[in-house]
Design brief:
Shape: globular
Strand content: 15-25%
Number of strands: 13
Largest sheet: 7 strands, parallel
Order of helices and strands: EHHEHEHEHEEHHEHEHEHEHEHEHHE
Structural class: alpha/beta
């Protein structure tokens, strides 16, 4: 059986689908699994052992012509089944136009008529971690297609492999950038692509970098859109963190995070990547919900300060940014020191 998996549209969400894709690979061991996703996702899943093939599409204005072109491309592949992780109307429409005979996805955004198996959104969504949302879709797919119920919900496996070749390339890139590979490596992510409210102040990241640089190399990593906030960190820092912001693609960033000993960031996609590749990860949460969207793994630590208006899910704080301002540099440095000497998982609420 040829199975098409419609991947998600954000880095963090893509990582959170890993347990679901691993389960698909397990319950359909003789099938060919194709991940249909954005071009950047190939950098995350290049070495994944749970999909057989990756095909990509560019995000362009979604008029009818591009949608038809995608459908025609998929139609030629003669898929038997589509698992649609996204909730959009368009993603379901493309699988319908591609004449894929079995199409399974959550019944949202008026998609019921486009899917052969519209699955009700579980009532617990919003209270449980998003990995279970994607696993639920695979669980329902197994029940409807095979008549069995073996999908594991107890211990989701979110591991992400990175090849030795890519790790060697990452070390070479770091060395050329001036990183002393004989010392511990701490990466920091002071940006956030889609929300200014999620950002811990740049001057605090700078102070943290100064403290960490006493015993470790410190690098800044992120997308080209986050270069201005990285520049603010360097401006306020007494030390000189090496700035790789905008100088890596996602493939390279994934390998670099795997090489790093610790990643400290805001709530951002790279935090999910870092945790999945096995790196100790600290994420500072404020306006978003760590219960549902924290990096899933015992090597990840959430730091947040409880305030009455959080989580608000706003992209810009309309008041005083109290949820992020209240997180102190000393608190983050204390936990970073512990995570550089791995112990039991920590969930910190100041």
């Amino acid at each position: 059986m040829k199975i098409l998996i419609r991947g998600t549209n954000w880095i963090g969400d893509a990582v959170m689908t890993i347990p679901a894709m691993r389960e698909l690979n397990r319950i359909f061991p003789d099938s060919h699994l194709t991940l249909w996703t954005r071009p950047w996702a190939e950098g995350i899943f290049r070495d994944a052992d749970f999909v057989d093939e990756i095909i990509t599409f560019d995000k362009k204005p979604r008029w009818l012509k591009p949608t038809l072109a995608e459908a025609e491309m998929l139609k030629k592949e003669k898929f038997d089944l589509a698992i649609v992780f996204t909730n959009s109307f368009e993603s379901a429409l493309v699988t319908k136009l591609a004449n894929i005979p079995r199409r399974i996805g959550f019944n949202k955004d008026l998609r019921g008529l486009l899917l052969t198996d519209p699955i009700a959104v579980p009532e617990w969504k919003g209270r449980a971690h998003e990995v279970f949302y994607y696993l639920e879709l695979v669980k329902q797919s197994e029940s409807r297609i095979l008549g069995t119920q073996t999908v594991g919900m107890a211990s989701p496996d979110i591991r992400l492999d990175v090849s030795e070749e890519r790790l060697a390339e990452a070390r070479t890139k770091l060395g050329k950038a001036g990183v002393d590979l004989s010392r511990p490596l701490v990466a920091i992510g002071p940006g956030s692509t889609n929300s200014r409210a999620k950002r811990w102040p740049a001057e605090r990241f700078a102070s943290l970098a100064d403290l960490l640089s006493i015993d470790s190399n410190v690098i800044i990593i992120g997308t080209a859109n986050e270069q201005s906030v990285a520049a603010d960190v360097r401006k306020h820092a007494i030390s000189t963190p090496i700035d790789l912001t905008g100088r890596t693609n996602l493939d390279e960033a994934t390998a670099i995070l795997c090489v790093a000993d610790l990643f400290v960031s805001n709530d951002m996609g790279l935090a999910h990547v870092a945790s999945a590749v096995g790196t100790e990860t600290i994420v500072i949460f404020g306006p978003t919900n760590d219960v549902t969207t924290r990096p899933y793994g015992e090597n990840s630590t959430v730091i947040r300060h409880q305030v009455e208006c959080s989580p608000c899910m706003l992209r810009d704080c309309p008041i005083d940014h109290r949820c992020m301002i209240a997180v102190s540099v000393d608190k983050v440095f204390e936990i970073a020191t512990l995570r550089l000497q791995p112990a039991s998982p920590i969930i910190s609420h100041e």
